[in-house]
Amino acid sequence: LRIVMAALQHSSVRAGLLPVYRRLSGFKGRQVGREQQLLGAAQCTSVQGRYRSSRSREYLQESIVPSYHFQPSMPRLPVPKLSDTCGRYLASQQPMLDSTQLAETTRITREFEAKEGAELHNELLAMNEQNKHTSYISGPWFDMYLKSRLPVVLNYNPFMSFVDDPKAGYTEQLVRATNFVVSSARFMKSLREELLKPEIFHLGDRSKSKWFENIIRYVPSSVSWYGAYMVNAYPLDMSQYKNLLNSTRVPGIGRDEIVKHDAANHLLVVRNGHMYVFDVLDADGNIKQPAELQACLKYILSDESPPPSHPLGYLTAENRDTWAGLRQKLVDCGNEEALKMVDSAIFCMCLDDGVGEDPDSLTRLMLHGDAANRWFDKSFSLIIDKSGTAAINFEHAWGDGVGVLRYFNEVFDDMSISPAVTPSCEAADIDSSQHVRKLEFNLDGAVKEGIETAKENFFNLVKPLDLGLLQYSRHGKNDIKKYKVGPDAIMQLAVQMGYHRLTGKTAGTYESCSTAAFKHGRTETVRPCTAETRQCSLAFDKIDSANVSELRQLIQACSDKHNSLTKNAAMGQGWDRHLFALRTIAEKNGGSPAIFQDPAFAAINHFILSTSTLNTPALHLGSFAPVVPDGFGIGYGVRDRELGYNITSYPASLDVRDFVACIESSLDDLFKVLYESSKAKSETEK
Q1: What is the pLDDT of residues 188-226, one digit of tens each?
Q2: Which residues 6+ apart lie within 8 Å of 260 measured at CB?
Q3: Which one of 165, 442, 603, 638 is at 20 to 30 Å from 124 when CA atoms are compared?
Q4: Which pLDDT belongs to residue 51?
């Protein structure tokens, strides 16, 4: 930790590290140029020739440094000082409270710091010392997800959709599904045999060289992280990758369980409410020929069986205790082996007959769709609609998206550059019925009734969801960086200003930041609602009469503050996870300190504005639902020449389209001030 912190004292290092620690941005996909994308568009008969050797056909990567080489020596997530946590907590409360409320919350917090908090903190330190194999937050964070009885759909599972393949014919559903299966199998084999390159953030070219790989591979894993650090390379935690494939969240009474089946080689495909499985590897462990896999998928797509009267997928969208009870009934009806086939599959591929024709319908299709054609409990589901548009919907308990994004980028790049099949390819002439198994389930009256209720509950859950989209093409990341302010800071400031314009208030705001710099790190919360954003929002209320120079200074202060909060969060120096751990200990001890009973604590953790960003060339659109009934789920992205927000809400909140309009006007005003200030500065210098 001291080494990391020392490195961060250098501005060049600090600036370079920030993007990699932000939630879901651990690995940037290669920019796939038009020339590269056209590779692989040759005749189908040359598919085998796309690879250097029969071995390279099997693996997406063949790293000489094992995938988990750095795990044993990863630095541990620090437990912040209690005084720092309390100070940061009060700073976050400042824009939320009036002077009287802030004084009371300050008194409660300082008493907690001196008494109960100090005892809980010492207990946490002792527990952390006894569990050096993990982080202090890992266990409680798993419990938070797995003990929740809420349905995973909307409440937890987000989605992110791929950009379409620009080559003609490659988005045809069967072609794209086959290429996804082959590239996914190559990714799987690379990860299983630890040939996938370790997740490393490189600050220079030296650590990207073969020289570095040839040296670091021989450095013992117990110290390898420090060896990488010596050449300005920062390995990131990859523990979540072990639950990326062949895993499922299995419901239980009171607490669910993540179940892993490392040896399974079959894929689960859901179409028209039916479930199918087939192996993607042959008896020797090699990836089956693309034409064979294409034949299996073609066989499934050609199945004209009517939808089942009681599709099991609805159960995965049900209350978790209810689902646990019905799953046991399914087992009692003789379905245990079929359920195991579902649970152990590499992942779930959902082939939809519907089409996401626009951002609204695409968001609804990929975020929830029709649960009849989903299995929301799988680690992730790859959804491909009739037009070939594809997205990933992933379960959140097992991981925070770092592993999912790596898969997302690697597979997209692989199938874009070297597709296994082309539109001219024909499926193999095989009896696919001998390779594909359609899962059949025995259902008794109680299970059928449970499915009918689950279906009704599902549609009652998703129907009220409202959507608002902002595609802001007047400015992009290039303009923001030109003005020397942080792109993420501007996006978050526009949200704060937009909500202030809509309501005249501030609100509890959540932005997740990855702590993958540390062993078994999960996330820390960035709190974008600050005293600086509140002051800026108030000042922009009078933009017509305000001094441009003063407004520009306020924008800069917001950016600097946001960047500081992000850096602290990435280094495990926020306040949310620390207080969460202390509260967990207190509850186990039967206590409930006053700080956690303070109405101000409840208000700041009622996340009306829940935000997340994802920026990668492979991404077209992403979103998630609000986390509170009166809140907004705000997914946003920053591109070179465009900014975008995809926002969800429920009827209890304010109108989402009004909110989008307020964010747009806020962006207009921010860029107006940035431009006028820059212009004035240039004229002064002349």
Answers
A1: 999 999 999 999 999 888 899 999 999 999 999 999 999
A2: 242, 243, 246, 247
A3: 603
A4: 59
Cβ-contact 520, 77 below 8 angstroms: yes
Q: Which residues are CB-contacts of 672 (< 8 A; sequence separation ≥ 6)?
A: none
Enumerate residue ranges in the chain where pLDDT < 70.
Answer: 1-54, 686
Contact 476, 638 (CB under 8 A): yes
Q: Where is 457: in which H helix or E strand?
A: helix 445-462
pLDDT at residue number 44 = 60
pLDDT value of residue 273: 98
Pairing of strands 380-384, 348-351: parallel
Question: Residue 274: what residue type?
Answer: H
Tell me the pTM: 0.92
Q: Which parts of 544-648 fold into alpha helices (H)?
A: 548-570, 576-588, 594-597, 599-604
Query: What's the DSSP call for residue 187?
Result: H
Q: Cβ distance 163 to 617 under 8 Å?
A: yes
Kindly list the distances between the CA atom of residue 15 and the CA atoms of 218, 521, 566, 664, in Å, as whole numbers in the listed order. 30, 21, 11, 28
Q: What's the pLDDT at 54?
A: 62
**List 396, 435, 562, 606, catalytic entry:** 396
Distance (Å) of CA 634 to CA 28, 514, 523: 22, 18, 18
The 10s digit of each residue's pLDDT in 330-377 is 999 999 999 999 999 999 999 999 999 999 999 999 999 999 999 999
Distances (CA, A) of 415 to 6, 182, 260, 619: 41, 8, 27, 15
d(CA 354, CA 92): 45
d(CA 299, CA 291): 12
Distance CA 77, CA 524 (A): 11
Measuring CA to CA, which residue among 585, 568, 560 is closest to residue 515?
Answer: 568
So what's the pLDDT on residue 204? 87
Active site residue 396: yes
419, two tokens: 């597709």
> What stretch of H or E contains 390?
strand 390-394
Indicate if the alpha-carbon torsion angle 10, 15, 16, 17 is positive or negative. Answer: positive
In 107-147, DSSP assigns E strands to none
Q: Which residue has the tokens 């499926």?
A: 427
Our CA dihedral for 533, 536, 540, 543, rounded to 10 degrees, sits at -160
Which pLDDT score is estimated for 545?
81
Tell me how far apart the alpha carbons of residues 172 and 180 are, in angstroms, rounded to a whole number: 12
DSSP line for 240-296: GGGGTSSEEEE--SSS-EEEE-TT--EEEEEETTEEEEEESB-TTSPBPPHHHHHHH
CA nearest 410: which of 610, 97, 186? 186
What is the pLDDT, as a whole number, of residue 336? 98
Q: How far apart are CA 542 and CA 548, in angstroms?
A: 11
* Helix or strand holding residue 191 (H, E): helix 173-192
Per-residue confidence (pLDDT) for residue 50, from 0 to 100: 57
Tokens of 233: 């390379």
Give the contacts of 489 (CB within 8 A, at least 6 positions apart): 558, 559, 562, 563
Terminal CA-CA length for the chain: 47
% helix, strand, coil for the chain, step of 5: 50, 15, 35
